[in-house]
Every structure is written in C-alpha cells, then in structure tokens.
Amino acid sequence: MATQVVMPKLSPTMEEGQVARWLKKEGDKVSMGEPIAEIDTDKATMEMQALSAGVLRKVLVQEGESAPLGQPIAIIGEPDEDISALLKSEPAPAKEAPANEEAPAKEEAPAKEDAPAKEEAAAQPETTPESEAAPAGEQKKAAPQPEIAREVQTDGKRPNGGRMLVSPIAARMAAESGVDLNSVKGSGPSGRIVKRDIEEAMKAPQAASPGATPKLSLVRPMAVPAGQPGATYGPSAYRDEPMSEMRRTIAKRLVTSLGPVPHFFLTTEIEMDRAADMRQQINTLYPDAKVSINDVIIKVAAVALIQHPQVNASFQDKTVRHYEHADIGVAVATENGLITPIVRAADVKSLLDIATEVRELAGRARSRKLKPEEYMGATFSISNLGMFGIDEFTAVINPPEAAILAVGAMKPKPIVREDQIEIHQMMRVTMSCDHRVVDGAVGAQFLQTFKQILENPLYLFLG
C-alpha cells in the first residue's frame, strides 16, 4: 500500500525542515530502515529513514526546498500501484506531525526553554505531551509510515572503484582543511572515514594530503578588473541562495529579542594582568588543561551571578524566575550560524572542568552534534569576539535570559595610576540587560563584582 513520507520533527524547536539531499531517486527500491534523505533542521543535519518498503514513487519536495512539519515530501509504494489519490491529498498541518514517533529517543524528548528550573537544571529530556500529538485518525491520514532519523552518512567512490564511506562531518572537515580523502584510511564501521580520521590526517598534512591546498595566512589584495574609461554600470548582479534552517531560526529568535525585549547596555573596563598571570600559572602546572581567558571569564561570571541572583533570572510574563545555578551559554560561531552550548552549574565547577567542558562542547557544536539540552535553557550568556581583535561591542539577549555579556579583546594600554603612567592588560566588556528583570543599579552592581573578582582572581579561592 502506497504511503506518504512526511517531514518529521527532528528537534524541539524545529518548525520546518529543508531537504538537504535525497539519498534515493524516483524509481529506486527502498527497504525498511534504509536512509532515504538528509534533512537540515534548525540545529543539525539528520538522516531520515523509511520504515516501509517499496519503491520511491514520487519526490514532492526537491533538494534545497523546505516543508513544514507533517507535510508529505515523498511517496513510497509498489512499482505499478496507483498513487493518484495520495498526489491529490492535501498536505497535513504542521501540528499533526507526530514528533515523538519520528524523532529518535534522544531527540524526541528535548528540554524546552521555558521548562521549569528544576527540569532544566537536571537537563532531563521531556516527553511530548499526549495532548500535543495528532489524533490517531489524522495520523493515519497524514503520516501512516513515520520515518526515524539518525546521524548523517555520505557515500563516495575510491579511485580504484572500491566503495568509500565518509561521514558528512569528515567530508566537510576534509574540504575545509584540504585533506585528500583518498589518502585517509577510515577507522569507522566498514572502513568509514569519520571525524577522528580527518583530525589525525590534519596533524600530518604533508603526509596525509599531498595534494592539499595550502592555507593562506596573509590577506592578499583582490584583483579588480580595470573598467573602461567612461563606462557606465547598472545595478550590481546578485545571486540568491536558499537560507538554512539554522539561519532562519537565528533570524526568528533575534526578532523576538531586540524588538520586544527592552535592552540597555552597561560597559566597563577591566585590568586583566592578574587573571592572565593566573591562567598562565595554571597552564604551566597543568599543560593539558589549556585554560583560556574565556574559561576564566565564564567562571568569574558564574560566581558573580550567584552573588547577584537578580541577574541570574528570566522574565516569565507574570513572574520573574530566579535560578539556583549559573548555566552559562557560550557563543560559538559555526559555518551555519551562531549556537550557544551551555556549561551547566559553572558556579560549582573548577576552572579545569570548565576548560575541558567548553572545548568538548565547542567541538561538537561545530560538527552539529549537540543534544538539545546542551544548547537550550542557559541562564546567562557570554559572547567573546576578543580573539577577532574586536575591542568592544554589544550583544543581543537570547530570550528568556535577562542578560548577555559581550567581551572584547585584551590589550596593553597606558593607565594613569597615582599620577604615573603604567601599562596594563585591559579588556572592555558590555552587558546587555533586559530592563524588565534587571535595573540599571542591579546590572552595575553585578559588573562591579565581576570586575572585582577578575582583577583579583584570588577571590575565586576564598568562597
């Protein structure tokens, strides 16, 4: 019996999905559990499998196109079966998508951003309430054969005709770093090339990728074709590219922030000499720790938040929610957009633990491997553009958080102390505050404590 393949719900905030690639074409046989497409969600690329067998009779949504949850995107049936009735049927509304049937176990129970504090702190997945699921009769009509999702895999060919199996992450890393996949031996199942294989190849780029394109470290002037004297030019040519689901989600969330949320900004300058010395001494004692200045900032912010619980809070329409721990969201730039993995309970963790956790979370964020509970539900966020040489900037609050700290570069500057000019490492930070929760004096007191601890990090060991 022919069935519709519908757009599944693969993440808690997903409202629609984009077909990144069809793994089958019309007329191909499809087995139960076989991957048939890759779907870009708002946070990750997931593989969609079919639970019914037959032939992929019709593709309804092409690669690069998006569809809301529950909308049919393909039809699977017997080779000579009449599918005209399914082709004429109306797409199912988004709310009819049976989220908890289509997502894998870890995906189908995400922690919602507005979940109660204790649930967020525990980072335990929630099950989708029965009331949100589509009625049984409507499910039969819209999605009689739900699909499941798993990690994306990509196939290729060896030069000798053998089969090459490469995960998408590994393929992307290879393309970015110039590693020749033909020179890499896969360590995954059936010889699949996975992320760690590319990382090993990148450590020995000359041996692993003889044909790799060397990275350019210098900014070179662009070659601009000379125009004809007296020539006139019309409006510039342009090209439109489909927006990824992750970029769409970022755009929607930012619209709900700077507009509806009344922002105000507080800026201060902090002397970082002692913090930098402490970080250097820690890394000397523990070379594997690789503690960064940002790790120190995360720890200090967490400690300051506990001392100022009015900032470690969020606006909830009729209430203000105060959190017991400081769950710090750390902004990480990826090729698909910004994401903020969370260091949970940073106030009670050591600097070494925070450094290790941040590196691990950032790595998985860039490879789109974070679980929903790992990037949703922070109580405060930090965005650091100092490594890009930015001295000072303002950041947009990520609702429902009450504040975000924008961190600039640490640079030596002349400072006047007791009529003497001294050179110190200085850093400017700007906190964006939700005025519905944080008043000016409250925000200033938080920054005062934050600055005091950062300029005298021994406070971290006195609590």
Write structural notes for this entry:
A hairpin with a 2-residue loop joins strand 16 (332-334) and strand 17. The protein has 463 residues and is of the alpha+beta class. The chain has helices at residues 84-88, 99-102, 117-122, 136-142, 168-177, 195-203, 205-208, 245-255, 273-285, 293-307, 351-366, 372-375, 440-455; strands at 3-6, 16-22, 29-30, 35-40, 45-49, 54-59, 66-68, 72-77, 148-151, 154-157, 163-166, 263-271, 313-316, 319-322, 328-330, 332-334, 337-339, 342-343, 380-384, 403-417, 420-434. It has a six-stranded mixed beta sheet. The chain contains 13 helices and 21 strands.
Oligomer: single chain
Helical amount: 25-40%
Determine the strand fraction and express it as a percent band: 15-25%
Tally of extended strands?
21
What does the main sheet amount to?
6 strands, mixed
Shape: elongated
> Count of helical segments?
13
The low-pLDDT segments are 92-161, 205-218
Radius of gyration: 26 Å
Query: For the terminal residues, how far apart are their CA atoms?
Result: 67 Å
Structural class by helix and strand composition:
alpha+beta
Strand order of the largest sheet: 12-21-20-19-15-18
Mean pLDDT, to the nearest integer, reads 77
